[in-house]
Amino acid sequence: MIMRIFQVVTKQGKEEEFGRFFTQKAIPMMKGTKGILQVLPGAPRPESPREFSFVMVWEDLDALKAFAGEDYASPHIDPAEADLVETRSIRHYELAEA
């Protein structure tokens, strides 16, 4: 299984608008994506008011590539978020069994 961590920092003043996009579009879309076993959305905290994240657990690399394409290591953006986000990052890990 692949753990994918996606993080964004919104542009200054765009926190509320991105928050609506995140809760109304991004979270439902990711939860409904084939190949994802678990989605853990992260909302901002007082010490990081512009940061949002997703931790996703994918069945395998093939499922992730079916969603993101061969360039799965690059953070893909929805056109609705392009003007709201200052930076984005993505990391992948093998899920360690506890």
Notes on the structure:
Residues 1-72 form the ABM domain. The structure is a single chain. This protein is an alpha+beta fold and 98 residues long. The chain has one domain: Alpha-Beta Plaits. Helices cover 26% and strands 35% of the residues. The chain has helices at 15-31, 61-68, and strands at 2-10, 36-42, 51-58, 85-94. The protein has a 4-stranded antiparallel beta sheet. A hairpin with an 8-residue loop joins strand 2 (36-42) and strand 3. The chain is globular and about 35 Å long. The model has no long low-confidence stretch (mean pLDDT 93).
Give a short summary of the structure.
This protein has 98 residues and is α+β, with helices and mostly antiparallel strands. 26% of the residues lie in helices and 35% in strands. The longest helix has 17 residues, at 15-31.
